[in-house]
Write a structure and sequence with these properties.
The structure holds 2 protein chains of 2 kinds. By secondary structure, chain A is mainly β. Helices cover about 0% and strands about 50% of the residues of chain A. The chains are: A mainly beta, B mainly beta.
Chain lengths: ~120, ~120
């Protein structure tokens, strides 16, 4: 079975540009979450989507947006890129919405975004 | 404001010995705690979790202990193996049924298991 996939693997952008990151969850998983991991820190929650609806949002500016498609894949968009947006962006999927040992989160390998 | 803290950025342990990773939290509303392991170029992998109604949870070589009064949890790995060398993240959630995605992560502890 394929795990969570993310594309692209690496990305280099300049300040002010816009970027779109993509995530395909594990087949059958309906929930997708996005995290930002800055070097030397733990992942920080950005968004959660469940059944194509936003169910949670972290403390990120409106430059960050996301959506989930009918096939449960998801895109994260970041506008007006800043140098501080340079990070590893992780996508995680799970079967359902809540936590628990039967609703384990599976993370993708991440997209490494560098803003110059 | 860092609500989950892992104060040891690194830990070196001999193969076969016990690894003890510590995690402290400040938010008394946290109700569910998890540990993740991360290898380079891979996403974090779920290891073990514990609900606030328990003080201990075991899964094979991994045991998590929770001390709610001290707002402290720890992960014990016994015996440590070379494949355990990775970064370990502690994470917490306020309401596991409602805030699935809102995990708060610590900064991680790099574990190196030496022969």
């Amino acid at each position: 079975d394929a795990g969570v996939t993310q594309s692209p693997t690496h990305l280099i952008k300049t300040r002010g540009q816009q970027v779109t990151l993509r995530c395909s969850p594990i087949s059958g998983h309906k929930s997708v979450s996005w995290y930002q991991q800055v070097l030397g820190q733990g992942p920080q929650f950005i968004f959660q989507y469940y059944e194509k609806e936003e169910r949670g949002r972290g403390n990120f500016p409106d430059r960050f947006s996301a959506r989930q498609f009918p096939n449960y894949s998801s895109e994260l968009n970041v506008n007006a890129l800043l140098l501080g947006d340079s990070a590893l962006y992780l996508c995680a999927s799970s079967p359902g919405e809540g936590l628990g040992s039967r609703n384990e989160q599976f993370f993708g390998p991440g997209t490494r975004l560098t803003v110059l | 404001d860092q609500q989950v803290k892992q104060n040891s950025p690194s830990l070196s342990v001999q193969e076969g010995r016990i690894s003890i990773l510590n995690c402290d939290y400040t938010n008394s509303m946290f109700d569910y705690f998890l540990w993740y392991k991360k290898y380079p170029a891979e996403g974090p992998t779920f290891l073990i979790s514990i609900s606030s109604i328990k003080d201990k949870n075991e899964d094979g070589r991994f045991t998590v202990f929770l001390n709610k009064s001290a707002k402290h949890l720890s992960l014990h790995i016994v015996p440590s193996q070379p494949g355990d060398s990775a970064v370990y993240f502690c994470a917490a959630s306020e309401d596991p049924d409602d805030s699935w995605g809102k995990l708060q992560f610590g900064a991680g502890t790099q574990v190196v298991v030496t022969p």
